[in-house]
């Protein structure tokens, strides 16, 4: 059973509807709405706006505005009307009946984009779960034409209605997907536990959609994650290990982009993915520095971080795309204690990437190695390097000329010296 829509080769002609509601504390952004529709492959042929104190119960809009929408639909031969709001199942059904064409609300639009972007098996499962959960509410109250019993030879008489059958199939599919995603969650948790045991910190990139997270991720890790100038270009999480000088191995994680009023069904469905951010050692909050509403986008991301329990994690603000700003320079901003709180850079050109690495290293804890080593006489260069770092606490010689050292130094320095000497740590450590 698949709910991923078959998309035509040409863009569907779409009428957009946006109301300024006095009852809304934070209205939706019209420009972002149009970009969402284009990301879904729609052709915006008209935008209808209006104002109301509160939504109308039956049609969401007033009857006069509904007549205006109907006229535009007929004039433009539109195939789809999309609302920049969340509609109830009954409102969606009533509007469709009145306009004679498909109607989609904001949540349905975002779900459709996610369905297009999902590439991995896990991502597709998560999207399908969110779509099924969204559809189940439509089945409960929206599909009254299915409230009839199956007919035909051998099917007459008592039996479940078509609607009951569809509800049952949806419930069974939801349970099946939830079990599979629970297995994914356990596997991810095992991976996180392994990283914790190996003392490898995780740095998660979070931010508003289209802020440049994947471009930055590729620049940092020399990867080839899909990058495009569109909303939700990256949906599936990607993780890469990077060895940073003075720090050692670090896991970088690229995550799904956030958006204002991200549907709760998506937050629930992508819980396993978002847990990578909530369990990170450090968050890099990537911001489109050239965006006019960047401060608003920062607040929206912080809202989602609160929902997933990641609001108190250490973080660095990364102001990206300074190449699009006149006179902007790469720099590190620090607090009163001298700790980095923000970095200005361009992921596209690479300017300021070295400053970001510096800031990351300052934030991540420097783990200390306190151990004993046994060196052969021909490994004197490594011994000298340890002395240069003031890492040797005690030294003694063995009967066969071996050198026994007790050392203490930051873990990152230890592994860097081992690597530069062409040695292997496990061959040196005795106890």
Question: Can you describe what's shown?
Answer:
The protein is of the alpha/beta class and 431 residues long. It folds into four domains: 103 residues, GTPase HflX, N-terminal domain (Rossmann fold, 3-Layer(aba) Sandwich); 66 residues; 165 residues, Rossmann fold (3-Layer(aba) Sandwich); 61 residues, Alpha-Beta Plaits (2-Layer Sandwich). Helix content is 41%, strand content 21%. The strands form three sheets. Strands 6-7-5-8-9-11-10 form a seven-stranded mixed β-sheet, with helices on both faces. A four-stranded parallel β-sheet has the order 2-1-3-4, with helices on both faces. It is elongated, with a radius of gyration of 28 Å. The N terminus is likely disordered.
The stretches of 5 or more residues where confidence is low (pLDDT under 50) are 1-10, 141-159, 226-235
Q: Largest sheet, described in full?
A: 7 strands, mixed
Q: Give, in order, the helices and strands.
A: EHEHEHEHHHEHEEHHEHEEEHEHEEHH
At CATH level 3, the topology of the largest domain is Rossmann fold
Number of strands: 14
Top-tier CATH class of the largest domain: Alpha Beta
């Amino acid at each position: 059973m698949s709910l991923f829509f078959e998309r035509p080769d040409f863009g569907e002609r779409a009428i957009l509807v946006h109301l300024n509601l006095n009852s809304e504390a934070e209205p939706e952004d019209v420009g972002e709405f149009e970009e969402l529709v284009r990301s879904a492959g729609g052709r915006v042929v008209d935008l209808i706006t209006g104002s109301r104190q509160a939504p109308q119960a039956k049609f969401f809009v007033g009857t006069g505005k509904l007549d205006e929408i109907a006229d535009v639909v007929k004039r433009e031969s539109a195939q789809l009307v999309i609302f920049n709001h969340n509609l109830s199942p009954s409102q969606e059904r009533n509007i469709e009946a009145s306009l004679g064409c498909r109607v989609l609300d904001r949540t349905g639009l975002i779900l459709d984009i996610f369905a297009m972007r999902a590439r991995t098996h896990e991502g597709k499962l998560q999207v399908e779960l969110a779509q099924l959960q969204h559809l189940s509410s439509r089945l409960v109250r929206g599909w009254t034409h299915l409230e009839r019993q199956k007919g035909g030879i051998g099917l007459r008489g008592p039996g479940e209605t078509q609607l009951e059958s569809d509800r049952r199939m949806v419930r069974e599919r939801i349970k099946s997907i939830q079990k599979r995603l629970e297995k994914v969650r356990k596997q991810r948790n095992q991976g996180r536990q392994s990283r914790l045991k190996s003392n490898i910190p995780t740095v998660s990139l979070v931010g508003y959609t289209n802020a440049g997270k994947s471009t930055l991720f590729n620049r940092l890790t020399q990867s080839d994650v899909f990058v495009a100038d569109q909303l939700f270009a990256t949906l599936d999480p990607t993780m890469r290990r990077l060895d940073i000088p003075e720090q050692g191995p670090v896991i970088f994680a690229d995550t799904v982009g956030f958006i204002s009023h991200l549907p709760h069904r998506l937050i629930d469905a992508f819980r396993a993915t978002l847990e990578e951010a909530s369990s990170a050692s450090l968050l890099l909050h990537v911001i489109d520095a050239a965006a006019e509403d960047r401060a608003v986008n920062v607040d929206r991301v912080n809202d989602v971080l609160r929902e997933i329990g990641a609001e108190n994690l250490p973080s660095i603000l990364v102001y990206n795309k300074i190449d699009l700003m006149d006179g902007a320079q790469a720099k590190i901003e620090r607090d009163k204690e001298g700790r980095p709180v923000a970095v200005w850079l361009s992921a596209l050109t690479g300017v300021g990437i070295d400053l970001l690495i510096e800031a990351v290293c300052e934030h991540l804890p420097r783990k200390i190695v306190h151990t004993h080593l046994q060196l052969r006489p021909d490994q004197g260069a490594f011994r000298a390097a340890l002395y240069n770092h003031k890492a040797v606490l005690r030294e003694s010689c063995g009967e066969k000329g071996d050198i026994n050292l007790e050392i203490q130094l930051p873990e990152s320095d230890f592994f860097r010296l081992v690597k530069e000497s062409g040695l292997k740590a496990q061959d040196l450590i005795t106890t």
